[in-house]
Amino acid sequence: MSTFSSPRVRAPKPGIFSQQTLLILVGQDRTPFHVHPTTLAKTGFFEVHGHPPTAAEKEHRLQLGRASATLGMGTPPTELKQEPGRSRSSSRSSTVNAEQRSPINAASNSTLEDYHLVNHVFEPAAFEVIVKWLYNQPPGVPGNRGQCKTLLRAYALALQYSIDGLQDAIVENFRIYHQDFDLNFDDLVWFINRFGDDLSYRAVPMVIYLADQTAYELTTHGYDKFVAKNQFFQRFLTTGDRPLRAIIFEALVNLARAPQAVDPATGPNRWSVAGSTNNRSQPPTDEMEVIEID
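That's the BTB domain-containing protein sequence above. Prediction below.
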C-alpha cells in the first residue's frame, strides 16, 4: 500500500493506540465518525479544516447550548457550510439510527462534535471510504452508478487531503469497472465542476484517466454510439468554452499517434499521483509501461 505524505500539522499528543478520538459529523444528517487525531495527521485534514477545538472551547459551546435551551430558545441549529471547514455549531449531535452505525462511525449522542463537514462532496458514504482507508480497508470496485459517484466524491476528498495512495486505488477501481461497463461522461463533468475556475484539475490523474477513456471509447465505439449513451457530450462540444476540451483533444491526438489503440481500462496503469508531474508527450502503446504526464 502506498504511504501517505508526511504530516505538516502536528496532531494532539495522544498516541495512535489511545482511546481519544475526534468526533466528525458528516452531511446534513450529521452521520458520526470517530477518528484518531494521529491518524488524521497522516493526511492534509488539519490543513484543510484547522486544528480541533480545545476542551475549553467545546465546553463553552456546550454551555451556550444549555443556556439557550434553558431560556426556551431550543438548541441553536448547526450552521451548514457550503465550503469545507470547522463547525461553529453550538448544537449537540443529532440522534442516528442504530442501523446507520458501524465500528468506525459509532458515536455518542451526548458528545459535542469536533467538526461538522457539509457540502456537495461531504456525503457520509464518501467520507467512510476515507476513514476505512486510514484504518487499512481499501475501497471495493464499484458495481453501479451510485457507487461510482460515491468513489468520485471520495477521490475529491482524497485529493483535498493529499491521500495519494487512495487516489491511486480509486483510479484502479474505475479501470476495473470500465472493463465491464462503458464510461459515463457525466462523471468527468461532475468532477471538474468541483474545481470551479481552478484549472489545476488538468494535472489530476483521475481527470486524465477519464479523458483518455473518453477518447478511447469515442474512437472504438464511434461518435454516434458514444453520444447516444452520453447525450450531454454533444452540447459540451458545441456550447461554452471549457478547458477540458483541450484535454480530450490531446487524448484523441495521442491515441491517433499510437501504433495500436490500447484500452486505458486494461492497458498499463499510467494514472498514478507519483507520475502526474511528468511530461505527457508520448502516445500509449502496448510496450510502454509508464507514460509521462503533465
